[in-house]
Specification:
Leucine-rich repeat, LRR (right-handed beta-alpha superhelix); Leu-rich_rpt; LRR_dom_sf; Leucine-rich repeat, cysteine-containing subtype; 6-stranded parallel sheet; flat; alpha/beta; Leu-rich_rpt_Cys-con_subtyp; 14-stranded parallel sheet
Length: about 550
């Protein structure tokens, strides 16, 4: 039964969870009115607490007042962390998320925290970062035994250091288990990881990094099967055997990442592929033939996102992915030798290219990231033909791309909404006779060689843009940016940091001419000095000024 609030005039008031349900139906103005008239309002609705003040006594008063807290963040707390943890342990909170950072707390404090039955039962997320007193498997066992219902755990010196999954789909949720051999702080072994896996069956997301091979009877291979709830798994810089991958294959993983690991083969990867939605491979030695083997033998019907980082794969891998994995929605490839593939090196005739298109045509692909690959205009011509529903394309630092390749993309991908060309090497991005999709809303030309003439062409051909990034474009002047702001009536976000552009003068011109009808955010050089009057004027127009 819900805990009742204090009695009023001899009768019990409404239970707190009923109040919470009622609050969900109020808008912000109504909630503000309630907060001003009812002193207990904040106590009921406050679920999260970020602690900065080092006074433990003050912290103790806060957690006694806010009895419905579910999340406490002590990463910026500079006081006695051990005592703060003990205060939580002595409270009646049903805490679900706890974030710790620092070198000043003992594992014993976590043991006391776990002795609180409410916290032991409800804690799902625990981050213990930069704790140099966390030394070995025994400390890990304390966590495993104290918090059996944990679903997310981070231990180590860095937070989410495996975060470059495809378009960061899962980057904010990846778990860290050990990073000891990098910083010599967390000396966790396979034995400790095995104990953890056996004691935490509800673990959903796990990243294991820099863990040395152990010959203990308890290890990752014979313990991974205990984590029946595991859906996301990542290995970084460690030995991963095919036998281990076979055991992992018995789980229904949705996300799997193997980064800079050793001793596994493509045959092992086949074992984990059946249920995957996301597959990330960072391996300097994986080749086109390996990818072809995986796509030909594996069950990848559920795969929607993939990222491959390798020095050996070429543009042929992209064609294989498009041709043999039609379920893919996101593809990210990082391959320095990309230009050595089929399309870039073999001069196909129009008829041969047409035959290739019929074999490779992919209607599902929405996002393609080929940044830092040696992409040619010829390949972009093919992509335009075979990926008609492409929405986002990243060609950053693809030095061989010209306006002809961009034109081919515009012609074939009529649903394109975003194009990123950071480091673009040409002065012009769009040709005069190019037909730009009406769906194009976001263009990023950061650190590019675009000039005033090229910018004017974009202004003319893309009157529907809502976001434009010109940070680091040194060949653009104030005049062309003024023309762009004046003529693109839909622009809501403008980012610029151009050597030839006086940002103060541009802002003053915007205010004086009233060209702020649509702009909601302007990112400009941090060194720009704005008066309080200017800041207030932009805010009154609903436009936020940020530094970049």
């Amino acid at each position: 039964m819900s805990k009742l609030l204090k009695t009023a005039q001899g009768s019990e008031t409404i239970p707190s969870d009923c109040w919470e349900s009622a609050f969900h139906h109020l808008n912000s103005a109504e909630l503000k009115a309630v907060a001003l008239t009812w002193k207990d309002f904040l106590r009921l609705v406050k679920k999260s607490l970020n602690v900065v003040n080092p006074d433990v006594t003050l912290f103790s008063k806060q957690i006694k007042r806010f009895t419905h807290l579910k999340r406490i963040d002590l990463r910026d707390f500079q006081g006695d962390l051990d005592e703060a943890i003990r205060e939580i342990a002595r409270s009646g909170l049903c805490l679900e998320n706890l974030y710790l950072r620092g070198t000043a707390f003992e594992t014993q404090s976590l043991k006391e925290l776990g002795s609180n039955p409410n916290i032991a039962k409800n804690l799902k997320v625990l981050h213990c970062l930069q704790n140099q007193r966390f030394n070995d498997d025994n400390d890990l066992a304390v966590i495993a035994n104290s918090f059996p219902n944990l679903e997310q755990l981070q231990i180590g010196h860095k937070e989410s250091f495996v975060a470059s999954s495809v378009y960061s789909v899962f980057s904010t949720h990846v778990l860290i288990m050990g990073s000891g051999n990098v910083d010599h702080v967390v000396n966790v072994t396979e034995h400790g990881i095995g104990l953890l896996l056996r004691n935490m069956p509800k673990m959903e997301r796990l990243c294991i990094a820099h863990i040395d091979k152990s010959w203990s009877a308890i290890n990752i291979e014979n313990s991974i099967g205990h984590t029946k709830s595991l859906t996301h798994l990542a290995f970084v810089d460690m030995d991963v055997s095919d036998n281990l991958l076979m055991e992992i294959g018995k789980l229904k993983l949705k996300y799997f990442s193997v980064s800079r690991c050793r001793n596994y083969t493509v045959s092992g990867l086949l074992a984990v592929s059946k249920y995957l939605n996301v597959l990330r491979i960072e391996d300097a030695n994986i080749r086109d033939l390996d990818v072809e083997f995986l796509l030909g033998r594996g069950d990848l019907a559920n795969l929607t996102c993939t990222e491959i980082i390798s020095n050996q794969v070429t543009s042929s891998t992209l064609l294989l992915l498009l041709m043999k994995c039609s379920s893919l929605v996101d593809i990210k490839l990082t391959a320095p030798n990309f230009k050595n593939g089929l399309v870039n090196n073999i001069p196909l005739t129009i008829d041969e290219l047409a035959i290739l298109v019929t074999r490779v045509l992919n209607h599902n692909l929405r996002r393609l990231d080929l940044s830092r690959c040696s992409v040619t205009d010829r390949l972009l011509l093919l992509i335009g033909w075979v990926c008609p529903n492409l929405e986002l394309l990243d060609l950053s630092f693809c030095s061989l791309v010209t306006s002809r390749g961009v034109e081919a993309i515009f012609k074939g991908c009529r649903r394109l909404t975003g194009l990123r060309l950071r480091g673009y090497m040409k002065a012009k991005m769009i040709e005069e006779n190019s037909e730009v999709p009406e769906t194009l809303k976001v263009v990023s030309l950061e650190d590019s060689q675009i000039d005033d003439e090229g910018l004017d062409m974009i202004r003319t051909k893309c009157p529907q843009l809502i976001s434009f990034n010109l940070i680091g474009c040194q060949n653009v002047t104030l005049k062309s940016i003024k023309r762009m702001v004046k003529n693109i009536k839909t622009l809501t976000q403008l980012l610029f940091k151009c050597e030839k552009v006086n940002s103060g003068e541009l802002l003053e011109w915007m205010l004086s001419k009233g060209h702020l009808a649509s702009l909601k955010e302007i990112n400009l050089p941090r060194e720009t000095l704005l008066t309080d009057t200017q800041k207030e004027a932009f805010l009154q127009h609903g436009c936020l000024i940020r530094g970049c």
